[in-house]
Amino acid sequence: MPGRTPTATVGPGGHRPEARTTEPAPAKVNLFLAVGPCRADGYHELLTLYESVPLQDEVTVTLRPAPDGRWRFRVSGGGPGLPSGWELPRDTENLAGRAALLYAEALAGAAPGPGGGRASSRPVGPAHVEVRIEKRVPPAAGLGGGSADAAAVLRALQRLYGHPLDTADLLELAARLGSDVPFLVRGGRAVGRSRGEVVLPRPAAPRLPLVLALTTSRLQTPEVYGELDRLRERGEAPPPGADDPERGLEALLDALAAADLERAGPLLRNDLEAACVSLCPEVEVLTRLLRESGCVGAAVSGSGPTVFGLARDMDEASAAARRAGRDAPPGLSGRVTFVPLLSGLPGERRGAAANPLEPF
């Protein structure tokens, strides 16, 4: 995923120079999400198909000299993606700050050797790491915004330090931060397994014409999974194993490979939809509205409440967004925005293949 070329300036008193780089932090949707039983570790077994979308935060990471000889981590930010009354978690309370902390800890093992990465082109001693996040992806929306910020911090630090960690080590750090972070380190399109952190990239063509229904409502991921478990216990949602999700995913991948979006639309799936609707009934309204507005399929992204529709082309996506905005019920019209966009990474060419993992 492209980022800006690092810049450097001499630090106070001629110390090691400061260095800065800015990374895009694109969001994702889940074109397919099958949820299995709850595991012993508290996570659910997942089978998902991730897709990057060019709705993104901007993450700037600055390394400053540490005359006190201690690592320090500061995270700040704001922006239009933060709802009224929300504040960005600060420092290591923010997942982006924890990403910087984990990366710093990993640098101790970055010297060449068995299982190690490449030698760093920058001294590995302590630094003051400042992260500034310009939020455009709404939080608690099922779009992976916080995880994308953490992934952007990992990529930025790799650039600033000269790529001292190898791919496996970087993705292991990403998996420790969250289930979506390994995918968001590279983006594109990929199948996710286990709790979502075991990622297999897939060809990113064709890019998909989508309509995002961005609502002011918010859902917390643990609450949604807990509600799904309760619905299943009461027989109000299909139990895990009720069908073969592998076949459903393969059918969707085949339709995408053939660029047959008409066939792909009905194959979109999210097993969390029933739980999202139970907690936030407008999700059902938005899903139906996108289908009635001309999308060939619609589904919830992640743990919601964002809903997305798949159109045949961008002209139809734009038309569906206009119709959905016009036909939204009065109670929703002021609280939802319909955004047509073409999936993929920022700056990716139309029809481009999945971006390579290295260099970050």
Topology:
Blueprint: E1 7-9, E2 18-38, E3 44-64, E4 72-78, H1 95-107, E5 128-134, H2 145-161, H3 167-177, H4 181-186, E6 189-193, E7 198-201, E8 209-215, H5 221-233, H6 245-257, H7 261-264, E9 269-270, H8 273-279, H9 282-292, E10 297-300, E11 307-310, H10 314-327, H11 330-333, E12 336-342
Helix pairs in contact: 1-2, 1-3, 5-8, 9-10
Can you give a write-up of this model?
By secondary structure, the protein is α+β, with helices and mostly antiparallel strands. It folds into 2 domains: 7-201, Ribosomal Protein S5, domain 2 (2-Layer Sandwich); 209-342, 2-Layer Sandwich (Alpha-Beta Plaits). The protein has helices at residues 95-107, 145-161, 167-177, 181-186, 221-233, 245-257, 261-264, 273-279, 282-292, 314-327, 330-333, and strands spanning 7-9, 18-38, 44-64, 72-78, 128-134, 189-193, 198-201, 209-215, 269-270, 297-300, 307-310, 336-342. The strands form 2 sheets. Strands 1, 2, 3, 4, 5, 6, 7 and 9 form an 8-stranded mixed sheet that branches. Strands 10-11-8-12 form a 4-stranded antiparallel sheet. Strand 2 and strand 3 form a beta hairpin. Helix 1 runs antiparallel to helix 3 (167-177) and helix 5 crosses helix 8 (273-279). The longest helix has 17 residues, at 145-161. The N and C termini lie close together (6 Å).
